[in-house]
Amino acid sequence: MSLPPASAEIAARRGPFFVVLNAGSGRHDSDEQQALIARTLEQGGRAFEFLLVEDPAHIGEVARRAVGLAEARQGVVVAAGGDGTINAVAREVLASGCPFGVLPQGTFNYFGRAHGIPQDTAAAARALLGASIAPVQAGQVNGRLFLVNASLGLYPQLLEDREAWKAQLGRSRLVAFLSGIATLLQSRKQLHLQIESGGQIVALRTPTLFVGNNRLQLTRVGIAGQQADAVEQGQLAAIVVRPIGTLALFGLLMRGVLGQLGEADNIDSFSFRRLTVTPRGLKRIKVATDGETAWMRPPLVFEIAPQPLLLLVPAPADRAEVA
């Protein structure tokens, strides 16, 4: 990837931070987080401004306002939230060329963890003060950005059910696991897909297609080696589950939890730069990108975004161990 422009480097070192903070998920918690971030940045002598998202439906609008301020004042756009919030803000930042900072506050935080960003809010805010720019690959499906993964079929349903369970029982990995079991018990659908990559066309039947853009997540579920390395070499990694029954799907879920998915006989994985997917008999299909779902019209084109995200990564002394 090419080096970032000098203006972006100056903004990263000295420019004000425009922090997009999702305040709609819990007023008390967001107030505490805002105070903690403000105190840390004030102690570091850096100018900043909060842009609060009161309604998640308006996060794109708030992010665009942050980008406009960053462009006008040579600053940095910062997303405070989980992978879904980070995705929504990054969508607006990508084409602007503005530096992008992250304060992870989600359950899994694969994007921040993969780049050594501390999971503690105060530590992550301190890390912004001495951070430098690293161009980071972004994926896209039909023009919609994803930083961690995109998927169709069973996986988007798992995500939607997980959010419903978390709304009732709270956000935890145990709740996510139990909701996954409940989804599998109800799952019966198979997708009939035609996929094309590099001039080769294949027809297949599968309950889900998963496209990864995060080496950490891929290795955590057991997809290591060539496919995991591909996302650091200008490609994306695809995982396809062969047609199997409910019991076998339970086995795959457990393998994923234990980091052994790559050892399963009933999955295929491959890497690519551009993949065209056409579902048979569907005029639209639900697609998940970084945990958020949307309806799209086929064909679906998965590819590397033409420009990288200019991410602020911590200095070596501030980096968190990838875990």
Give a brief outline of the structure.
The chain is an alpha+beta fold. 37% of the residues lie in helices and 30% in strands.
Would you mind describing this structure in some detail?
This protein has 323 residues and is an alpha+beta fold. It has eleven helices and 18 strands. The chain folds into two domains: 142 residues, Rossmann fold, CATH 3.40.50; 141 residues, Sandwich (Tumour Suppressor Smad4), CATH 2.60.200.40. Helices cover 37% and strands 30% of the residues. The strands form four sheets. It has a six-stranded antiparallel β-sheet with strand order 7-6-17-14-9-10. Strand 15 and strand 16 form a beta hairpin. Helix 2 packs parallel to helix 6, helix 3 packs across helix 4 and helix 7 crosses helix 8. The chain starts with 5 loop residues before the first helix and ends in a 10-residue tail after the last strand.
Number of continuous helical runs: 11
The total of beta strands comes to 18
Which segments are poorly predicted (pLDDT under 50) over 5 or more consecutive residues? none
Number of domains: 2
Secondary-structure-derived class: alpha+beta
Our estimate of the beta-strand percent is 25-35%
Which key phrases capture this entry?
Rossmann fold; alpha+beta; 2 domains; 37% helix; 18 strands; 6-stranded antiparallel beta sheet
